[in-house]
């Protein structure tokens, strides 16, 4: 029997689940339905990514209310939530934090969409559980496990997948193998991805070329009785030739340079769950993310490169651990779900393998002079939390409290400490007719992050701001949801209003003279408000869903800064999006032709125009995609995918880009792109 696949599940309850706990549910790659139990959390799953043949995480996340994501290459994919950029969002991969800011013209998220089985997106911060450092939300990626590839009790299994995209001539090929025996299991996954420049609807080059992206994921696990142990290692590397500043458009004068962005992550996890009293989870991880600008002699001569005049590896290393437990007390009518634990993480930003280069007078040769490694800018945070979800019949109240101790060492010049207490409260009531109402509040806290790593080696003097304050925010949201379900019909709807008042937002500032100094300063704050709507109807083999997101940002206080050309601008916190964004609309229509083993779908992503504070205007746009997935019943475990993105070849610019005006230096999104592929599980 052909299975109906749920593309988007939306939360209708306020149970604040721990995103980092071990999930005991067995996933099936041909029918994954991962529900969320957090207020303001949506889920997309592996099948969603596979069916739409998106090839990257951008196309999938764009459909989620409250989420904005742009960028024309993997080197420039940036997530935004409710007016804040990725610096203010907790991003994890299998629980390992992805921290730091390497280069503001490039992205910091390095991830392979093909290895993802679930993405848990939390808009807003309404839980104290493992949410230290987040001002606006969280994105938790979960990768495949060995059990996901083992079918019908088989001890060995695997999956091979390949796809091709016409816009940038991209080939993706991956192989996953798994085995299990007497409680032991192993997963080995490898992928290679090649591509050239893509093109926008006006035939402007976008992205990068000579791509040789690779990914390797290895997981070892052992399970016996109530004990689970897992060790994983991942090495993902985007490697190719890109513009130095990936967020700008490519012109005839743009230097195209050899770059790579390897990320290496090692995770150890132990879980013990003998009863409702003890659901224990221990996780250690270390992740290192690098932006390697080891430009070749040919790169430098071809571009006549004079700035920057160094090549280097810019690195962010994060080590951390969690110790968590969950305790359930009571009965079906009245109970308490307690979550408590501690978290520690330390992030270090530094440059290595630095060489100064000089082009000789003949313009034919380049000399390289080794330079000392840069200072290391370090931050660390230790937090402890307690949260109690209290159920009294149909009423739920969830108070929580987190204590943070944050330390900043200012590149070794001086240590500063920041202590904070963050309370939270969430309320929910379930009516018997499927209606649910909810409201919540939390005090958010974020300590000063490590200095942008790319600039650390340029610092001659690090100016200490003795009066520097941590970034804080008061977050509120409330709304209602509705869920109705019978044999043939399912209706889901959710409406939310949110408001956030941020204070002491931090800006990193550099001097404009040759004696470069660098300083962190509080710039003021911002008030961000808006609403998110989502509705879905599924009747038999047909489903339709619609979402709407609106947000407005009002900047508070701040001060003027001067650029090298003498112009001035208002300094805003580095965690804020470049500008406000227009109202966002999404539409998904899908029909399951069960007798043909085929799913056919349509997606619309649209933004209204937006007039900004400086009277410039972001243009509105609407982009349509279609996709088809074929699962032939006569060949078990085979799937064929075809998608056409931007079917009408629309010329448009993401509202997350730096500039609102459209011109030669604009990072246009991709024009029409036809992607087809197949996957076979065995």
UniProtKB/TrEMBL annotation:
PROSITE patterns (UniProt xref): TONB_DEPENDENT_REC_2, TONB_DEPENDENT_REC_3
Gene3D superfamilies named among the record's database cross-references: TonB-dependent receptor, beta-barrel domain (2.40.170.20), TonB-dependent receptor, plug domain (2.170.130.10)
Record-annotated TonB-dependent receptor plug domain positions: 42-137
Residue ranges of domain TonB-dependent receptor-like beta-barrel in the record: 231-647
Keywords: Cell outer membrane, Membrane, Receptor, Signal, TonB box, Transmembrane, Transmembrane beta strand, Transport
Subcellular location: Cell outer membrane
Matches recorded under PANTHER family: HEME_HEMOPEXIN UTILIZATION PROTEIN C, TONB-DEPENDENT OUTER MEMBRANE RECEPTOR
Family, as annotated: Belongs to the TonB-dependent receptor family.
Annotated protein name in UniProt: TonB-dependent receptor
């Amino acid at each position: 029997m052909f299975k109906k696949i749920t593309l988007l599940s939306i939360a209708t309850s306020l149970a604040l689940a721990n995103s980092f706990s071990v999930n005991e549910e067995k996933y099936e790659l041909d029918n994954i339905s991962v529900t969320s139990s957090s207020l303001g959390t949506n889920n997309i799953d592996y099948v969603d990514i596979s069916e739409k043949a998106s090839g990257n995480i951008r196309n999938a996340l764009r459909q989620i209310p409250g989420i904005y994501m742009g960028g024309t290459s993997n080197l420039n994919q940036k997530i935004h939530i409710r007016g804040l950029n990725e610096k203010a969002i907790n991003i994890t991969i299998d629980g390992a934090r992805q921290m730091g800011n390497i280069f503001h013209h490039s992205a910091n998220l390095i991830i392979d969409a093909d290895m993802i089985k679930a993405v848990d997106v939390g808009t807003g911060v309404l839980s104290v559980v493992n949410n230290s450092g987040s001002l606006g939300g969280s994105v938790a990626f979960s990768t495949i496990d060995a059990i996901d590839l083992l079918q019908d009790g088989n001890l060995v299994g695997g999956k091979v997948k390949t796809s091709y995209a016409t816009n940038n001539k991209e080939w993706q090929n991956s192989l996953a193998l798994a085995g299990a025996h007497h409680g032991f299991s192993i997963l080995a996954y490898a992928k290679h991805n090649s591509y050239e420049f893509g093109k926008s609807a006006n035939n402007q080059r976008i992205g990068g070329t000579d791509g040789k992206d690779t990914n390797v994921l290895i997981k070892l696990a052992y399970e016996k009785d109530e004990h689970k142990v897992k060790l994983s290692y991942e090495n993902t590397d985007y490697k190719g030739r890109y513009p130095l500043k990936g967020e700008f458009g490519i012109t005839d004068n743009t230097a195209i340079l050899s770059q790579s962005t390897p990320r290496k992550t090692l995770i150890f996890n132990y879980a013990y769950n003998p009863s409702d009293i003890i659901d224990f989870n221990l996780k250690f991880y270390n992740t290192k993310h690098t932006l390697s600008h080891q430009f070749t002699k040919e790169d430098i001569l071809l571009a006549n490169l004079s700035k920057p005049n160094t090549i280097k590896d810019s690195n962010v290393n994060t080590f951390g651990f969690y110790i968590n437990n969950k305790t359930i007390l009571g009965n079906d009518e009245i109970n308490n779900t307690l979550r408590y634990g501690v978290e520690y993480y330390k992030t270090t930003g530094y440059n290595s393998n630095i060489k100064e280069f000089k082009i000789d007078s003949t313009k034919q040769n380049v000399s390289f002079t080794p330079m000392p490694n840069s200072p290391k800018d370090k931050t660390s945070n230790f937090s402890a939390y307690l949260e109690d979800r209290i159920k009294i019949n149909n009423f739920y109240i969830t108070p929580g409290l987190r204590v943070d101790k944050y330390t900043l060492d200012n590149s070794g010049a001086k240590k500063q400490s920041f202590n904070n207490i963050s309370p939270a409260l969430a309320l929910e009531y379930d009516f018997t007719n499927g209606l649910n109402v909810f409201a919540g509040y939390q005090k958010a806290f974020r300590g000063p992050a490590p200095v942008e790593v790319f600039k650390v080696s340029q610092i001659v003097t690090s100016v200490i701001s003795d009066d520097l304050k941590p970034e804080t925010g008061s977050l509120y949201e409330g709304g209602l949801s509705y869920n109705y379900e019978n044999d043939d019909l399912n209706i889901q709807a959710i409406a939310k209003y949110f408001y956030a008042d941020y204070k002491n937002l931090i800006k990193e500032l550099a001097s404009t003279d040759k004696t470069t100094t660098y300083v962190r300063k509080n710039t003021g704050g911002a008030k961000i408000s808006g609403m998110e709507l989502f509705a879905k109807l599924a009747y038999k083999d047909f489903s339709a869903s619609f979402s709407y997101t609106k947000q407005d940002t009002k900047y508070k206080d701040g001060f003027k800064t001067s650029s090298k050309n003498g112009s001035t601008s208002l300094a805003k916190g580095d965690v804020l999006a470049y500008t406000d964004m227009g109202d966002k609309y999404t539409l998904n229509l899908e029909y399951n032709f069960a007798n043909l083993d085929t799913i056919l779908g349509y997606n619309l992503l649209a933004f209204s125009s937006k007039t900004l504070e400086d009277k410039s205007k972001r243009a509105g746009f609407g982009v349509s995609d279609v996709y088809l997935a074929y699962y032939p019943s006569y060949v078990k475990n085979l799937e064929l995918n075809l998608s056409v993105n931007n079917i009408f070849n629309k010329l448009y610019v993401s509202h997350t880009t730096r500039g609102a005006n459209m011109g030669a230096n604009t990072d246009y999104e991709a024009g029409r792109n036809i992607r087809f592929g197949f996957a076979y599980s065995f």
